[in-house]
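User: Can you fold this complex?
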Amino acid sequence: MSEALGRVVATERRPNTPHEFHFWTAIDSPVGIGTIVRVDGAHPIDGRIPHIYGIVVEGFSYTDLQSPMHDVMGHDGSPTAAGFAATERAEIRLYTAAVLRQIPEEPLQPVPMGQVFLADEADVQVALRMDGYLREGANTGIPVGVYRAGGTDAVIYLDADFLLGPEAAHLNITGVSGLATKTSAVEWLLASLFKHFPDDKGSIAAVCFNVKGPDLCYLDQPGKIEESDEVLYEKLGVEPKPFESVRYFAPYNAKGLALNTFRNNEALLDNVTPLTWGLREVLQFAEVLLNKDDVDAKADALIDFITQNVVDKEFPSDGTLSKNHRVQSFADLDAWFKDVLQGMERKDGESWRTHHVATIRKVRNRLSNISTRCAGLVTDSGHVSDLPFGSFEDRTVYVVDVANLEEDAQDLIFARIVSKLREHLERRDLGVKHLVVFVDELNKYAPGDGPDTYVRKMLLDIAERGRYLGLVLFGAQQFRSQVHRRVVGNSGTGLFGRMDPDELSTPGYAVLSPATRTKLATLEKGQLMIRHPHFTQPIFVRFPRPSVMQGREGSERYPQASEVSLEAAILRALRPLDSTITLPWVQDITALYTEEEVIRARNATLLARPDNVKAYFMSQFRRALPAQAAPRPMAGSIKSAPENDPYGF
Amino acid sequence: MLVSNSSPDAASRAALRSLMEQLPGMSAVEGGGYLEPVASNDPPVLRSAQIAEGSTLRAIRIPTLSRPASSEFEAFLDGSQKVQVVGHRYGMPIVFGTASAVVRVRVNRRMITWGHQPPRVERRIFVPLRYLPELADWRASSLGVEGAQWQIIDTSTADRNGDYPSQHPAVLIERAIRAVDVERETLEDLLAEAWCARGDGSLYIDGGISRNARVASSTCAVGVIKSHRTLYVEGDALRIVLGLEKGERSSVFRVSPRSRSSVMSWYLRLRDAKGRDAMWGLVRVEIAECKYQLERADEISRWVLAETTPLSLPDGRWDKMAYGVRDCEEFLRAIS
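Assistant: Here's the predicted assembly.
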């Protein structure tokens, strides 16, 4: 048994309670804020010696000095003289610990006097009730980090049932920006989750929305880790290597030539899939892009009419419309609108099928506007390239890069993808049983105040119902206090990196002791405070640096491609599919066609990913090839002049 | 020496409960505080002493006294006593007394308890058995309560003249106090002897060293006396001693009390007494007779002066008390 490092003390003015106790230690003991200790009671209760586990939440130090003035007097007012005193004053290190667990758990009594020991790894498991889910038969522990104190290195596990459901779910990460805490922690945790998620619980994948910077853009590239990280990886049972299966999705830029992502370097384009949607995909989420002023009851009714009766339907001509319409793209829709409005003008009518002309003009304006506002994502042509809903693969990360997009486009992407994920999970046909959705900047997407946006409603829905579907939200933000209470409140697990002192002064952190708050404000990189349903108090852990390339390094090694010509953009897009494609070949093929036609051909090829890329790409132009010049009529043969008729008559 | 005035400790309360169980007729004294030691019946006196440094007593500035003043004291020794009337039976006082002593060693500028001799704590229950005949079988027995052993002491035994004390409760209480006082001195001497026998270095003893011959002759022991009921100077010498300035000592003189060992001694002013009474910061140092007593007096004076920081406040005797002695007292307060 290890040597005692302290003794429990209690006075009338500062008594121990069932949830808190005090102890003193030697001056040089390794105890600090966050250290887990074990108290061995002296007297048995019901024949059992009680063991109490606690975590240090506050520390005090003082001497027998009654007044600072006495010290001044004692050293004649000279601070330097204090160092010459033959004896140092008696000094105490007094700590307050919050009880993590008492054994036996009943009767729950105030913590008895006794010796205090540093908790070893087995103690930590008991103290945090991890023994319940690390035992044979349960085995749902997901390593999240290493608790380290006084020579004790103990792996801290989260319970998968409480991280991904069904018991509780969701994870929320808070921390100041720029200290590689939030993104790094998620990258590490996903690696651990993919490694340790029990096979009997089914498959798991993750969809990460990269909302800013390039941090999530190199998850498949190896990163630099230090020796100390390797030790942590070994302890935590995870191999220090990048994710084996990562797929990236990003819309095109407004011109449609290059993908609008930090990861558009040619060397990395092989697993970046364009994200493009047409009218059908967008219309059902029109609410995301249209504000409440736009979508009044009348406009809403017209949009419903269009969705149900116009899009993807044969819409016959009537007294107003001049021809039959089949609307499959924004271009088709605009033509339909134009026809309706012209028809109304012809008839000098104010309404068509109960829809007033002003409403029709307004809805036309707003809907047509979408393809402009979300250019690169929404195509006029109706061309669709999407996430592989229905065929998600186990242990795969799907990164959707929306970092460079306008807010509208980000909202649309977020709303549609999450809705589709939820639909598929409800139908159990997504391809995986559990899906983690990582969203950073919850301050922005699910604010505690401000308008009730579609995106916030969706996040609330995930937070409240997601765990029953296997849809788990890993959310991150700088200011937890500014995120909607129901989003953070429904997060079973909370991770806290270094915190801003202003944020720590908000009421949500009042439950933490001043010392714990101070520690949170000064955490180093790679340190986290964890709250988890099994832990009755927050625990501090270290986690290894993710073994993937960090954003800064990635953007230096794989610089973003600059603006290129149409031909170069086509070459860059197709070459990952066929390395024999050359720029002259692309120039030859595309020379006669418009930019729009070329881009359409490229999109179709990328979507189809055919075996013969060249042939498929060329085939996209066949219909558009200009009519062959009519063969020149054969000139009649000239009669040969008779030999004896020199004039040919 | 510490005289505690705090409330009864846990051991005393446990012993009292046990005592009341065994003595149904006993009346407990509620809220009885600890008793002060009995003041000596002798009046304060001036007594001449043999000058050992020069022919007349004079004030000597301690040479090379400058910062940083270092001290070579390895340890400090002090004792403590607590006496409390806890009850009475038919008016006869029942007194609890605790005597204790400790040596605290300085390691890396911090005080810890000497490992070779544990702190001594002796607990006594003083009962006038002569006047409580029904308790006659308690004689030479002890009461064990919760790990603490309380020895029963008869306060009504005959003195060396064969006279029994009066039944006056104050007389019986005074006997108990004196007995505890003696017990404390005994414990202090035991520890001092043990220290000197090992010869581990210089020991700062709170009080004189002449009581015990082995201690009085050891070069390890340095006694520092804070009270001056007897001043070993007369006439001009008295003016010189009372006029000592901070950092000055008197000439060394020899103290040879009756029934005690002869030791070398001198007065030393630890703090500036301007605006204070004449005894402010004045201590008397005792050491064993030695060959180079003058150099030794200067050296030890420097050590004692170095022990004036940190201050021993809030103790009222902080002007004369070394911090190491206060540490001993606090330690004894905690354990006894």
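Chain B touches chain A through 23 residues (CB under 8 Å). The longest strand of chain B covers residues 73-89.
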